[in-house]
Amino acid sequence: MSPATLNKNNADVVPDGTIASDENKFDRRTLVIAGSLLSAGIAATPIIKRMLPKKQVFVAKNQRYDGPLVDTIRDGLVAAGIDPTWLRGKRVLLKPNMVEPTREIPHMTTHPNVIVAAAEVFRSWGASVKVGEGPGHVRDTEIALEESGVAEALETAKLPFADLNYESVCWTKNRGKKSKLKGFYFPQSVCEADLLVSMPKMKTHHWVGVTASMKNLYGIIPGIKYGWPKNVLHHNGIPETVFDINASAPRTAAIIDGIECMEGDGPILGSMKHMGLILVGQNLPALDATTTRIMGLRPELIPYLNIASSLGPIETYRAEQTGENWEDLVSPFRILDRPHLRDLRTSADGPLVT
Amino acid sequence: MSRAVRMDWNSQAVEHLASTREWNYRRGGDSYAEPAALTALALIGAGQAQESVVAAEWLAQLQSPDGTVGVSARETTPCWPTALAISVWSICQEKLQDDRFTTNIESALNWTFEHQGKTAPRRDGIGHDTSLRGWSWALGTHAWLEPTSMFVTALHHAGKPLHPRTIEAVRMIVDRQLPRGGFNYGNTFVLGQQLLSHVQPTGIALSALAVANIDASRVERSLRYLQQRWADVESTASLCYASMGLAAYGRSPDALQEKLERRHAAWKSKRQGIYKLALLTLAAQNERCPLIHKRMTRDEPSNA
Predict the structure, then answer these.
(1) What residues of B are in contact with residue A269 (Cβ under 8 Å)?
(2) Averaged pLDDT for residues B258-271
(3) Which residue among A136, A145, A246, A308 sits deepest, i.e. has the most Cβ atoms within 10 Å of its Cβ?
(4) pTM of the predicted model as reported, rounded to 2 decimal places
(5) By three-state DSSP, how is residue A144 classified?
């Protein structure tokens, strides 16, 4: 068991890779004992389950883009263990999904109202907030902002935008080491952030099954170093590089836009599925695992979640569910009728689309 | 708007480009190779080849011993700006009627011909021909539309239209055209679905194909796509590349030129970087834009 070490923000990095907050501290002795028992292959016993630390996952239902999103997000962040007093004076970077926006497919990208609501919450806690994105499929970030509607929202809310594709970069060692990449060039805004908030859209993905808060962090990789698309990542394994980016990024949290989602041929050309959800968490694997279950898919078969255990748990018993119970919210998403995707469904008669 | 007013914003832009030494993407940011190259080309197109030498020489200073030009002075990789540098040096010395950049060009060409995007046998689920060689964004990765277009344009500017790599790269670009018209970053069909077209790569691809003498009949769908889309585009870079792509085939409407002036006003009010100003200036040059300049050599056969 590796000892806890300090990251650049002087927070404790727990051996499973998450940042300990006041609400999420664990007993090291407990973890050592549990870890030993896990190694001995008796992980599933009830006593072990109770000993292992849980990660808070918050889910709100019946959400609307013109509803009280500020309240929902505020409640979610607090329920997920964020300490508002810690945020005073901190730099928060909100990272929505604007991979390839077009006005014809609004459910492809994070809704501007969710971004602005999140910004309002963090600002109310005294943080300085910036929105940043490095679209992977369009080199012209301005058109991505225009087509997604984010440009207008940022101007109205007086929120600064960081084009992550074209900033100066800093080199960060690969702390995940699942891929062969020795490290990553992160844009300056990412390097300077005290808190990076992944704000994805809840979508299916035609290669890896699901794209949520972990996969969304592909967008912090700058195109000026990696290209459009960021092929260096694909060539080194999508699951492995998703893991490594998440392991190497600064402190993270996530707010998932699950109101109007994408099913079918995600992440670009799928159809809209209304869910009305906002999901919040500080532990991205746990949050994505819950999201995946709600979508009627099996997180342990999503390649980048399957390897994510050192960053966070994906088992249900390791998630402390706040807000709504995820089991009541399950509504299977249609996925492509392809061999590598069919088996991801929790139910053999889950919906498929050709 | 009168032609005189139009000229005025353009003259201001050229004056600004000639005086700046900060070739940045955003105001106050570091200098990068692409904005520098576009600045040099814009000045050449404005009849100020001598003023372009500063930026052209800065690109020469960026050049590594292996012939490549990286994205900036600090970042020597990736090397796709090598294509833009070849264009700048070739056109600059052609206008100045000397050979000051010949060594730089030759070194860059040597690297260009030795490297290619990663190819693969064709496979189900991917619509384009993955075996065709072009150029990639980053070394060791697949060939994509914009870097390949930049290199095709550069190779024509450097007098290499008949090199086998040039010819194959033109085939690659044509292969990436979407059936409904337009181009994107370089994918056509994935898992049975035709992907979306985007304005900027369409403009860049059409500019390159025009330079390569590809007949309009082969890209008519893409020309129509741009003609239908440009009026809705509220982004400077995409609008400028749309303008150049249409101008390359003699199709740029007057109204688009008027829209460029409004984008220039937005550039000023938003205090944006040199990259967009250079693009606006190039786009305003219409068919005189050096990026779509066809180097006329005797007996140059058409690639149509």
Answers:
(1) 193, 195-196
(2) 94
(3) A308
(4) 0.91
(5) helix
